[in-house]
Automatic annotation (TrEMBL):
PROSITE patterns: ABC_TRANSPORTER_1, ABC_TRANSPORTER_2. Residues 2-234 form the ABC transporter domain. Gene3D superfamilies: P-loop containing nucleotide triphosphate hydrolases. Transmembrane segments: none annotated. It comes from Bizionia saleffrena. One of its GO terms (molecular function) is ATP hydrolysis activity. The keyword Acyltransferase does not apply. This is ABC transporter ATP-binding protein. SUPFAM superfamilies: P-loop containing nucleoside triphosphate hydrolases.
């Protein structure tokens, strides 16, 4: 179990994280979200032992995780960290990079494991390609596979799919998160992308102003977002009667007291997103077709149970 107790840290006298506490069980997937600069990457680096805490404690299965003041070499075998910049060996092949830290005493096992991981990150066809010839997204996938090669107990992923195109992203996410669950590997993911979270994460930690402002399941946070920051992570929304209403929860109906005048219409593929004005307040709603700017419509809220 990962335990983070009353962690506080700043690179300078300015605190980046204040009194952060949470825990994660074996196999848990915890997503860390928050605005750019809120300290998501810093939290992962601290868990990895890259910096010394100003105060608080970190431990994995009751063994303290210590910073550079107490630990000459950063990192341990049980924990892997895949950063936004990935350090790979450019002049050797993809499979050599992945197998780099696997023992040559067990060649069959090494081959099997490398092949399985190549499949997880969908790079089997590139096994023999030198890493320097790969795109940014492909390199990110090699870094991920290499981190998984030695079967860590916990993995820290910083924006793990940020460089990967939309065609690949969906199936890769499924492969990687299913693999981590199956192997019972704890995973802490810093992300801006709700697609990395919904359907996969067990819990979301929300960082804001150096604190955890929410620690809950994706479902609970989605259904009852307590702040605009949380609602905005999931979808476009409006504030109506001091409640956050997602754009898809606001519908055009024949009659209702909520009368709105369309101010903008955006094509979004399966639907149009409209901006409208209700007595000087701007709202957003989805509609299957485009509505002319200046037209008046009646809106109704439908919230989930
Ligand atoms: N090495 C460093 N030295 C000094 N300040 C730093 C350092 N790394 C990050 N910071 C500062 O710490 C704060 C938190 O940065 P961090 O990278 O943890 O945020 P983040 O939430 O991961 O952001 P992003 O979503 O943009 O990656 C920022 O204000 C950043 O400028």
């Amino acid at each position: 179990m990962l335990q983070v107790q009353h962690l506080s840290f700043g690179y300078t006298t300015n605190p980046i994280l204040k009194d952060i506490s949470f825990s994660a069980q074996a196999g848990d997937y915890i997503a860390v979200i928050g605005e750019s600069g809120s300290g998501k990457s810093t939290l992962l680096k601290l868990i990895y032992g890259e910096y010394d805490l100003d105060s608080g404690n970190l431990s994995w299965n009751n063994e303290a995780i210590l910073g550079p003041k107490y630990n000459l070499v950063v990192g341990t075998d049980f924990m892997k960290y895949v950063a936004q910049e990935f350090e790979l060996m450019p002049f050797i092949s993809v499979e050599e990079n992945i197998g780099k830290f696997l023992s040559n005493f067990f060649p069959d096992e090494k081959k099997e494991r490398t092949a399985a991981l190549l499949e997880v990150v969908e790079l089997t066809a590139f096994a023999k390609t030198k890493v320097k010839l790969l795109s940014g997204g492909q390199k990110q996938r090699v870094a991920l596979a290499r981190a998984l090669a030695k079967a860590p107990e916990i993995i820290l992923l910083d924006e793990p799919f940020s460089h990967i195109d939309n065609f690949k992203k969906q199936s890769l996410r499924r492969n990687v998160f299913e693999y981590l669950k199956k192997q019972n590997i704890t995973c802490i993911v810093a992300t801006h992308d709700k697609e990395d979270v919904l359907g996969f994460a067990d819990r979301i930690l929300v960082l804001d102003h150096a604190k955890i402002i929410a620690d809950n399941t994706p479902e609970n946070l989605y259904k009852a977002p307590e702040t605009a920051l949380i609602a905005s992570f999931f979808s476009e929304f409006s504030v109506i009667n001091e409640t956050f209403i997602y754009a898809h929860q606001l519908h055009v109906v024949a009659h209702s007291p909520l009368k709105a005048i369309i101010t903008n219409s955006y094509f979004k593929g399966a639907y149009y997103l409209h901006r409208a004005d209700i007595n000087g307040n701007s709202v957003l709603f989805e509609h299957p077709s485009s509505i002319t700017i200046g037209e008046s419509v009646c809106l109704q809220i439908t919230k989930p149970e």
